[in-house]
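To whoever is on call:

I kicked off a structure prediction for a single chain this morning and the downstream step that reads the tokens threw a length-mismatch warning. I double-checked the sequence; it's 191 residues and nothing unusual in it as far as I can see. Pasting both halves so you can look.
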Amino acid sequence: MTANETDKVKPITERCEEKMKKAIEHLKHEFERIKAGKANAHTLDPVKVESYGALVPLNQVANIAIPEPRSIVVTPWDKTQLKNIEKGIINANLGFNPMNDGNVVRIQIPALTEETRKELVKNVKKEGENTKITIRTSRKDANTELDKLTKEHVSENLVDIEKDHVQKLTDKYIKDVDTLITAKEKEIMTI
């Protein structure tokens, strides 16, 4: 095993792990957007507001606060934007009915029904399964690259060691996905 061989093998594993980390980060972001009957500023991430002729994210024209577990208050930096903010929230199709009181826009998060909770859990599991597929695909791609190295006279022993390392990474990140799914499921089903 030479330093040159190691230099060829290590970047493959590092790229593989980076893809797996990104898959986990994406899953966390998606889970933040899934409403669990509780207010969360990320719930409004899809909202775009027309501001001086351009569509911009809501957080660029207003402050978003969570004063209570089931309410969101949007305070515009420019009061003339209130109607546009209200319109942007409605157009985002999030299922909210914003209330404009002339100073702020208030949003009450509706309580979830049992049926809605079960549907959200289904979505959580589906999103988790998609992330697992991404992780397994990263493993497959890394193993394919490692197999090619044996044709370039890199020792099979080194390739096998690295494949074991890739499998351990896969197991670790799959377990992380399961942990995230369980936590989100518990959050959704807790009334």
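Update from on-call: the warning came from a stale cache, not from the record. Cleared it. Sanity check on the structure: The longest strand covers residues 62-68.
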